[in-house]
Amino acid sequence: GRLESALRAGIAAGELVLHYQPILDTGSGEVAGYEALVRWDRPGHGLVAPADFIPVAERSTLVCDVGRWVLAEATAQLVRWTAEGRGEHLTVSVNLSGRHVAQPGVVTDVADALAASGLAPHRLALEITETVVVDVLEIEEALRALRDLGVRISIDDFGTGYTSIHQLQHLAVDTLKIDRSLVEATTPGVLALVGLVVQAAHAFDLTVVAEGVEEPEQLERLRALGCDSVQGFLFARPEPAGLVADDGPLEP
Ligand code: G
Ligand code: G
Ligand code: MN
Ligand code: NA
Q1: Which of 17, 21, 183 is the pocket-test mutation for ligand 2 (most atoms within 8 Å of CB)?
Q2: Whose CA is nearest to atom 20 of ligand 2?
Q3: 145 lies in some domain
Q4: Which of 40, 52, 113, 205 has the smallest C-beta neighbourhood within 10 Å, fewest atoms?
Q5: Which atom of ligand 2 is nearest to the CA of 35?
Q6: Is residue 163 part of a domain?
């Protein structure tokens, strides 16, 4: 299609950009890392959101080209920030499409980005959407191979799919990202569910990040439930690298 050709040309022309949103340690309030979120600075269209072009890219292996660019840029950015004196403990998280993770070349793509940037593998986290992880067996094997590189694996949008808590023990993952829909909820049943997810994740040695935190009350609840990290508009919106603060806006 036309959008697909425009995107292909746009990638070659350097039109993709990354915005970064901090992920904060709930206990200390310090920034623990940044999630990289892609946008397309398409001439004549302004900044195009990923929801408006990733689904098109996912119809072909074009999404792997996007993924390779994001991996290269995000790892290089964290290396630049480290050279500028930001802490060596900081991580960067990259969203990978399930289609990309299901390709045999994904391990090479990640290894290449690490080699080119010089970033230590444990400082890169790969976010894969929950629905994808449970649907495709190849993904399970790919996650193992990726984890063998030393990178971290996060299950994104947890709570929107059908992963049972029981399945967590079989997946080669390090982190659960609890979806915003669960973070927003105020009904006692859903609050109890979030607590159970945190408990189960910890029992399986996973850390838990809550996404989409917008209200101080949500932060207090998540802290009480033992959630390890938080991310959301309450702290910062995704912003270009040049605007991303290097310290935690969250009061401990
Ligand atoms: O930043 P924003 O809220 O517009 O992101 C919307 C969606 O796009 C999210 O679900 C996010 O996971 C996805 N997304 C953001 N960046 C990337 C990326 O680099 N690759 C892929 N595959 N998805 C991304
Ligand atoms: O699916 P994924 O978690 O990768 O997508 C993250 C998306 O959520 C990004 O597009 C980001 O802009 C958006 N986002 C981040 N924090 C908040 C928040 O606090 N509230 C809302 N509504 N969206 C958020
Ligand atoms: Mn994500
Ligand atoms: Na998410």
Answers
A1: 21
A2: 212
A3: yes
A4: 205
A5: 4
A6: yes
Ligand nearest to the CA of 93: 3
Q: At what angle do helices 106-117 and 137-148 cross, to 10 degrees?
A: 30
Residue nearest to atom 23 of ligand 1 (CA): 95
Containing structural domain, residue 207: 2-243
Q: Which of the residue ranges 10-19, 124-133, 222-231 would you say has the lowest mean pLDDT?
A: 124-133
Q: How far does residue 18's CA lie from ligand 4's centre (Å)? A: 16
Query: Which secondary structure element, helix H or strand E, spans residue 157, and what is its range?
Result: strand 152-158
The structural domain count of the chain equals 1
Global pTM value: 0.96
CATH number, residue 193: 3.20.20.450
- Give per-residue pLDDT as tens, 46-80: 999 999 999 999 999 999 999 999 999 999 999 99
